[in-house]
Amino acid sequence: MKAHEQSASLAAARAEEPTFDIESTLPYLYDAGTGIGNAFKADLKRFDITLPMWRVLACIADREDQSVTEISRRAGQEIYTTSRLITAAADAGRVQRRAGRDGRTLSLRLTREGRRLVEHLSPRARELERSALAGIAPAEAALLRQLLRRIASNVAAPRRAPHASPTSSEVSPPPETAS
Q1: Number of helices (H) and strands (E), helices first, in the chain?
Q2: 48: exposed, middle or buried (C-beta count within 10 Å: 0-12, 13-18, 19+)?
Q3: What is the C-alpha to C-alpha distance for residues 120 and 112, in angstroms, rounded to an integer?
Q4: How far apart are CA 124 and CA 175, in angstroms?
Q5: pLDDT tens digits for 114-147?
Q6: pTM recorded for the entire structure
Q7: Taking a C-beta distance cutoff of 8 angstroms, is the pair 85, 56 a contact?
Q8: Does 1 score more than 50 pLDDT?
């Protein structure tokens, strides 16, 4: 094949490749969730709490007597960050810390003030979610949540996908055949 034919062939192949559609990428689509969080931050600011603090308070409100590790996992935050937030919430009178059942861990509960705050802000959180899901059927919303949980799990614990090419250390030489 001559050089100009090769160039034409490569150009034709590139023309057939789909362009990179940034608006279909997960990081771009994730901005929808970020938008919900940003809208909620204005409400939280009036009570002098951050979105990460809200997650901690909401996790404790949902299920009391959890360990810091469990709250950290459920809130999607590092244990260190969660621990600092719990200390700040306790100092603000929103969380009560007690020794856990095993005597080694903390058991956390919302105080009356913390529960009042969560009860006040929860309707706004639900409203923002309903607004984001407008026009989406309940079954589709349930599927969306299931898929987003799976994506979050994949991102939290990266692993090689089953269809990915093995690394060179994983490739076994072909068995020798007898002639």
Answers
A1: 7, 2
A2: exposed
A3: 12
A4: 63
A5: 999 999 999 999 999 999 999 999 999 999 999 9
A6: 0.70
A7: yes
A8: yes
Domain ranges across the chain: 22-134
Beta carbons of 100 and 150 less than 8 angstroms apart:
no
Q: Of the candidates 29, 97, 25, 22, which has an alpha carbon nearest to the alpha carbon of residue 67?
A: 97
Nearest residue to 96 (alpha-carbon basis) of 106, 81, 104: 106
At the top level of CATH, the class of 22-134 is mainly alpha
Kindly state the tokens that stand for 125.
């959180």
Distance CA 48, CA 35 (A): 20
CA distance 72 to 83: 8
Nearest to 42 by CA among 104, 107, 121, 100: 121
